[in-house]
Specification:
single chain, mainly alpha, 13 helices
Length: 317
């Protein structure tokens, strides 16, 4: 495969059996697979969190918010399940290329050879946020008015409204996104693979569990911690990104006040709206992403072995 690619360092196979380009391709492929599989759960979780207030701005009991979200899905199951999928798939390029590019770039730069560590995860989370946020904003705006219209909002309409304000609204929610992205990178991209490797060595070898099931166990172990950390940040994002683009934006402090008000009225149920579905989504998303990534990486490594561009113990040493 590498014979048709430029002979630059980015395309040269390293000692792990893959070039930087191939590692990036595996990450993007895994991300696209995950995005398609988990989109219905992502859409439902947003609605559960968004319907924390009624159309008049009054706090709504989490049980009622869940029923309203279910009613939206029952009314238009296909539309609700696919809502935001277009921006999310486009975002695999616009969001993931900067994030994974920075992540893997730092990783290779500091000599980790694609084994992502804390330094790479932190740098990628901060530096990629301006690229990621507009896509997340458009995705959430598509679903934001399902209750009123019964359909997703067209992307071009969202872009026209944003253009009228010099596209500034597309940056709403960037600050909580940085925290969300950091937790996602540290627990999802760094922690899960290390935990899966441990489970595979300690449990998989004794029980003959497949790579899929060891990945599922690792995701199940990481996900509750991930969701506990990110759920409040996700709430802030939803509050800030689902207000009308042509209206006044909601600041981080105002969004925090809404969560505090919610907690005063409904306790921890108010703070952790969407927590249960979030854990399920995290397990599904992490497992699908990593299994897709691992499958593509294995295929690319096998191709490198067959065409002689990778010789174990020799290449990249």
């Amino acid at each position: 495969m590498n014979s048709i690619l430029p002979n630059t360092e980015y395309f040269q196979v390293k000692k792990n059996g893959l070039s930087q380009f191939q590692t990036m391709s595996a990450y993007l492929g895994g991300s696209a697979f995950q995005t398609i599989v988990d989109n219905p759960v992502t859409a439902y979780r947003q609605l559960v969190q968004q319907y924390a207030k009624d159309l008049k701005g009054n706090p709504v009991d989490p049980k009622i918010a869940s029923k309203e979200s279910q009613a939206v899905f029952m009314k238009n199951p296909v539309g609700a399940s696919l809502s935001g999928l277009g921006p999310r798939l486009i975002g695999v390029g616009f969001k993931r290329i900067p994030k994974f590019g920075i992540l893997l770039g730092i990783s290779f730069l500091i000599g980790e050879d694609g084994e992502v560590g804390v330094v790479a995860a932190t740098g990628a989370s901060i530096m990629s946020a301006p690229f990621i946020n507009p896509i997340r904003m458009i995705e959430k705006q598509q679903r934001a008015f399902f209750k009123q219209t019964g359909a997703e909002k067209p992307i071009m309409e969202i872009c026209r409204e944003a253009a009228a304000k010099n596209f500034a609204p597309l940056m709403r929610g960037t600050i909580p996104l940085m925290g969300h992205s950091l937790a996602s990178a540290l627990l999802g991209l760094v922690g899960q693979p290390k935990l899966q490797k441990f489970i595979k060595e300690e449990i998989g070898a004794k029980t003959q569990l497949s790579g899929f099931f060891t990945g599922l166990l690792a995701s199940a172990a990481v996900s509750p911690i991930y969701v506990f950390v990110t759920n409040p940040l996700s709430r802030l994002e939803v509050i800030m990104q689902t207000s009308r683009i042509d209206g006044k934006g909601i600041s981080v402090s105002e969004a925090c006040k809404e969560v505090v008000t919610d907690s005063k009225k409904f306790g921890l149920r108010g703070v952790f709206r969407g927590q249960g579905i979030g854990i399920g989504k995290a397990i599904l998303s992490l497992t699908m992403f990593h299994q897709g990534r691992i499958f593509l990486a294995d295929q690319l490594k096998a191709s490198n072995l067959s065409d002689g561009s990778y010789v174990p113990g020799v290449t990249g040493v």
